Amino acid sequence: MYTVLICDDDKDIVSALEIYLTSEGYRTVSAYNGEEAVAAVRTENIDLILMDVMMPRLDGIRATAKLREEGNIPIILLTAKSEDTDKVLGLNIGADDYITKPFNPIEVLARVKSQLRRYTTLGGKAAAEGSDGALRNGTILMDDEAKAVTVDGEPVSLTPIEYNILRLLMKNLGRVYSTAQIYEQVWNDPALGSENTVAVHIRHLREKIEIDPANPRYLKVVWGLGYKMEKMP
Question: In angstroms, what CA-CA distances link 139 with 159, 176, 210, 229?
Fold first, then answer.
């Protein structure tokens, strides 16, 4: 049974999410500000976090940043339509996805299932999706069995989303993928308004694998078309 941490200062929203998730067989843990969320992650075996952005004491953005210092548990932000800058900031500092309020219960459950599927594959909680051996491009080495990445021999810590984007591009060196194609293959959701989400994760990935993220050698943009992984010797 997976455990989902629900963090929102609106108790009605927490209660509603608890009903949606427990009806699908999830165990839930509740928190009402960022400090409580961080404490819960340290004491409970949490598999995924639904995190509101606007909260007292410690908001969702700062709580996400703090949690990312300690691990890669999937974090889905709950945002209002007016919080577009917070969505981008949240993705920048490590959130995996966001859901806009008011939300549809079906959408919430689909996003939760999608994130858990990726996380358990990387974390070994489910059977491995198959052995593809090691993928190498230049100084980047991806061991898909161990779910580990090294650059110049040094280990790189990637979130599940970053790992799956990198794997997609390394398996298809030189192929150009549009932002919509990346989103559909990595998130397993329709690519409606996905451009900013993909761009933020690509930028974050570049910061981890490129010597100079502003002038990337590997992860190239093809203007007007999308992104590709440049084939390197």
Answer: 20, 21, 10, 13
**Which long-range contacts (C-beta less than 8 Å, at least 24 apart) are formed by 168-171?**
169/219, 169/227, 169/228, 169/229, 170/135, 170/137, 170/140, 170/142, 170/229, 171/132, 171/135
- Domain edges within the chain: 3-123, 134-229
Domains 3-123 and 134-229 share a fold: no
What's the CATH fold of domain 3-123? Answer: Rossmann fold (3.40.50)
- CA dist 149 → 35, 39, 174, 175 (Å): 32, 29, 20, 21
Q: How far apart are CA 123 and CA 58, in angstroms?
A: 28
Q: Tell me phi and psi for residue 94, to 5 degrees.
A: 125, -5
CATH 2.60.200.20 fits 134-229, yes or no: no
Rounded to whole angstroms, the Cα distance separating 77 from 91 reads 9
Whether the CB-CB separation of 137 and 218 falls below 8 Å is answered with: yes
Model confidence pLDDT, tens digit, residues 63-84: 999 998 888 889 999 988 666 7
Q: Tell me if residue 204 falls in helix, strand or coil.
A: helix
Is the pTM here over 0.70, yes or no? no
pLDDT (tens digit per residue) in 103-136: 888 889 988 988 887 776 555 343 333 334 688 8
SS3 (DSSP) at 66: helix
Averaged pLDDT, groups of 10, the chain, 233 residues long? 95 95 95 96 94 93 91 89 76 87 89 81 42 76 87 88 93 91 87 81 93 91 92 82
Residue 162: CB partners within 8 Å, gap ≥ 6? 201, 204, 205, 208
